Amino acid sequence: MSERDESAYEDDFYAWTQEQAALLRTLPGGGNRFDPEHLAEEIEDLGRSELRAAQSLCEHIIEHLLKLEFSGLDEPADHWRDEIVEWRLQLEKTLTRSIEAKLDLAGRYRAALRLVRRLDREVLGLSGRLPPQCPYTLEQIVGTADEDWFPASRT
């Protein structure tokens, strides 16, 4: 593996998997047992798995940020903050430039809203207080290594 390939593999695994799959598809299958098409699909799936993990982590972080800001519940707030910090650490390990470009923050927000609505039984009117678009930037969702940002409670 060249230095450039090694760097791409380490720096942006998702982009590397997509590039390698495309390269594999250019190779002939021939009469031997080498199967470039299925091998390419498996490599692409590895990259998509990283993307799905990052998307899921974002959804859960957004869900908990919304709970902190709009639920008015004090008791589970520390637990929610702890989970956010844990998920941010996991996200930091998977987030690359190419995954960040594919996150679709609006889609992650819609999924997070579905998760938050489970809390409607305990917090009457919660869904009605939630904003129609994501109120958080990607930087707020991801946080920073030195300091974790949390929204202030609105209740």
Polypeptide structure, described:
The chain is mostly helical. Helices cover 66% and strands 0% of the residues. The protein is elongated and about 65 Å long. The model has no long low-confidence stretch (mean pLDDT 90).
List descriptors.
155 residues; mainly alpha; Malate Synthase G, Chain: A, Domain 4
Itemize the secondary structure elements and their pairings.
Layout: H1 3-11, H2 13-25, H3 36-70, H4 77-94, H5 97-102, H6 105-116, H7 126-129, H8 138-142
Biggest β-sheet description: none
Query: What's the average pLDDT?
Result: 90
From the 3D structure, determine the CATH topology.
Answer: Malate Synthase G, Chain: A, Domain 4
* Rg from Cα: 20 Å
**Element-level helix/strand string:** HHHHHHHH
- End-to-end separation: 56 Å
According to DSSP, the number of beta strands is 0
Class inferred from helices and paired strands: mainly alpha
CATH superfamily: Uncharcterised protein PF01724
Please give the CATH class. Answer: Mainly Alpha
Percent helix, as a range, is 55-70%
Fraction of residues in β-strands: under 5%
What is the CATH architecture descriptor? Up-down Bundle
Unreliable stretches covering 5 or more consecutive residues: none
Shape call: elongated
